[in-house]
Amino acid sequence: MASFLRRLQDTFAAPAPPAAAPAPPAVPPVMETVKETIKDTFVKHPYFPAESPIVGYLANEYNTLELVSLFAAGCAVIFACTYVTVKRAAWGPLSFLTASLIAKDHPLRHPFQIIVSLGQLYGDVLYYATSLFDEHLLGLSYSRPEAAYYWGYFVFMNAFWIVIPLILIIKSVNACTRAFTALNRAEKVLNGGIAKKQL
């Protein structure tokens, strides 16, 4: 019991006065210029003096352009991985379901056709965007240099997967619009007919 009371007393006792903070280590000259550039623009870290380097703190190690490019690359990886995961888990089964609904002329084919077509459109835009980003900004080309390969295979053959989903989306949206317009007209006629009978 005495040891428990001693531990309890030690826990709630007044803390010892803080020791003097050690002097910050010397900063290399290159690191100092990067730090001054970033410090004057937007980076403020509230827990340390501005003169002390934080080990592993990205703003101390890279310039702003490198940080932005690292962030953009990370976003692109997350974007691509998310799409690939959704495509494998959902788009295949949804495509088969949509095909069977189209074959049966089921009314639900239009919402599913819109969903699958939007997914296909998203994937093709992602494919074009990442490839063109790499080509124009990084100078990496994934096709042969001849114009026939670039315009024939890359642009033209993939354009089908933009045009066809757009046509299907427009057709499905028009079908949904016609269905809801007819439903609204029928409700107005029924409500008008019920109102006349009540008089």
UniProtKB/TrEMBL annotation:
<feature type="transmembrane region" description="Helical">
    <location>
        <begin position="67"/>
        <end position="86"/>
    </location>
</feature>
<dbReference type="GO" id="GO:0016126">
    <property type="term" value="P:sterol biosynthetic process"/>
</dbReference>
<keyword id="KW-1133">Transmembrane helix</keyword>
<feature type="domain" description="EXPERA">
    <location>
        <begin position="1"/>
        <end position="169"/>
    </location>
</feature>
<keyword id="KW-0756">Sterol biosynthesis</keyword>
<keyword id="KW-0472">Membrane</keyword>
<dbReference type="GO" id="GO:0004769">
    <property type="term" value="F:steroid Delta-isomerase activity"/>
</dbReference>
<protein>
    <recommendedName>
        <fullName>EXPERA domain-containing protein</fullName>
    </recommendedName>
</protein>
<dbReference type="Pfam" id="PF05241">
    <property type="entry name" value="EBP"/>
</dbReference>
<keyword id="KW-1207">Sterol metabolism</keyword>
<keyword id="KW-0444">Lipid biosynthesis</keyword>
<keyword id="KW-0443">Lipid metabolism</keyword>
<keyword id="KW-0753">Steroid metabolism</keyword>
<comment type="similarity">
    <text>Belongs to the EBP family.</text>
</comment>
<dbReference type="InterPro" id="IPR007905">
    <property type="entry name" value="EBP"/>
</dbReference>
<keyword id="KW-0812">Transmembrane</keyword>
<keyword id="KW-0413">Isomerase</keyword>
<dbReference type="GO" id="GO:0000247">
    <property type="term" value="F:C-8 sterol isomerase activity"/>
</dbReference>
<keyword id="KW-0752">Steroid biosynthesis</keyword>
<dbReference type="GO" id="GO:0047750">
    <property type="term" value="F:cholestenol delta-isomerase activity"/>
</dbReference>
<dbReference type="GO" id="GO:0016020">
    <property type="term" value="C:membrane"/>
</dbReference>
<dbReference type="InterPro" id="IPR033118">
    <property type="entry name" value="EXPERA"/>
</dbReference>
<dbReference type="GO" id="GO:0005783">
    <property type="term" value="C:endoplasmic reticulum"/>
</dbReference>
<feature type="transmembrane region" description="Helical">
    <location>
        <begin position="150"/>
        <end position="170"/>
    </location>
</feature>
